[in-house]
Every structure is written in structure tokens, then in C-alpha cells.
Design goal:
It comes from marine sediment metagenome. The chain has about 160 residues and is α/β, with parallel strands linked by helices. It has helices at about 5-20, 45-55, 65-75, 120-130, 145-155, and strands at about 25-30, 35, 85-90, 110, 130-135.
Amino acid sequence: YGERFTTAALTVAVMAYNLARDNFSVVVFNTKAYTIKRIKERIKTDELINRILESDSAGYTNIAEGLKYGGLELEKIKKRNKFGVLVTDGAFNRGGDPRPYLRYFPKLHVLALPSKQDWGRRVCKDLARLGKGKFSEVNSYKQIPRILMRLLRET
């Protein structure tokens, strides 16, 4: 598996562990977005990781559709402290500007991956600021679990 799959699988494993008693959804996106786990669905962590590893990673980056699908899942629960976590480099090249899709989220935290595009980092910062969430940046994919765990503890 490539670095993207490894990153996604690690991220989901950390989320599943930290949110085991909560409702959470997992949406992955490339050219299109895919809901890997619905918000009220109960599945084992290894099954969730398998779904990630079996998903199609080829294609472009459609953050807008990913946010739309994630927001639609979030609308299915009544909890007051609802939030989303977006893991991306911010360099979208399909689906248009993702910022209008923040309306689906009471709060959106952004974990920014390393990007070759400087504007992608600015998009990540904008999404966190406009989404009333936290912005965290990683220099290496190995930092994701630790930073994500801290973010989830603070939320």
C-alpha cells in the first residue's frame, strides 16, 4: 500500500480507538468522495481499515465533495458538540473551492499534510479558521496519530 493508504488507515485506526463509544463517520475522497463508514454504523476497527485499504486511491483531489458527504453524515445526529476532522494537503483540483461546504459543519478541524502547493496550506488554514476549528500541521505522515489523538482529546 502507498503512503496515502497507510495515512488513511492510521488516521482511521486512531479515530476508531478514540471515538469507540461515539458516532463517527469516515469519508475518503479523490476524484469522487466515498462514505466508508456511516455515522451510526457499528463495525470493528479492522473491518474499517480493510474498507480503507480496499478503496480506490487513484484520481484527483475533490475536497468539496468530501466535505459535502461528511456534512450530510453529520446532519444525521442530534449531538450538540458535533465536529469534523479533515486530513488533506488542501491542494484541490476537482470539485471547486471547498470553503462554501463549511456550512455543513458547526466545527471543522484541519490536519494539514505536507504539500508541494503553497496555496494548499493556505486553503487548509482558511478551512480551519472559517470552520471555527483547530489547524494542525504535520511535517511527516508519522506525526498524524499523535497530533490526531491530541486534537480529539481537546475537542
